[in-house]
Amino acid sequence: VHGGFALEGADYNLVAALLPNFRESKKSRKEISFIRSPDLAVQLDVEEGSLRKKIERIREKINGRLSVDLGLALGVDDFIENKQREGYRLSGKLREVASTGDLEENS
């Protein structure tokens, strides 16, 4: 919204891989399950070490933009959570909105 920030390329693909699990869990009002690191790496066609670096970079990118554009600071797991031996998931604290109008209505 502010500054036209959007995820592209590998960043987009990573979030897109985590999104179906997030949506289904939210829809059924269940706890969001983690996607195992090896499974996510295979889905994205990357090595696990590369996956960890991608997640670290996307966290930094999102936190950087939110802090600059909106004055918000996220914790490490506030966007993509990870749990040792269980994998990764989008944070249950997130809320998906269809448009910027949804944000303005709920401000």
Word description of this protein:
The protein is mainly alpha-helical. Helix content is 52%, strand content 7%. It has a two-stranded antiparallel ribbon. Strand 1 (80-83) and strand 2 form a beta hairpin.
Helix-strand makeup class = mainly alpha
Number of helices: 4
Overall geometric form? globular
**Cα-based radius of gyration, to the nearest Å:** 14 Å
Would you spell out the secondary-structure blueprint of this structure?
Elements: H1 9-27, H2 37-44, H3 48-70, E1 80-83, E2 87-90, H4 100-105
Antiparallel strand pairs: 1-2
Notable features of this structure?
single chain; 2 strands; 107 residues; two-stranded antiparallel sheet; 4 helices; mainly alpha
In short:
The protein is mainly α and 107 residues long. It has 4 helices and 2 strands.
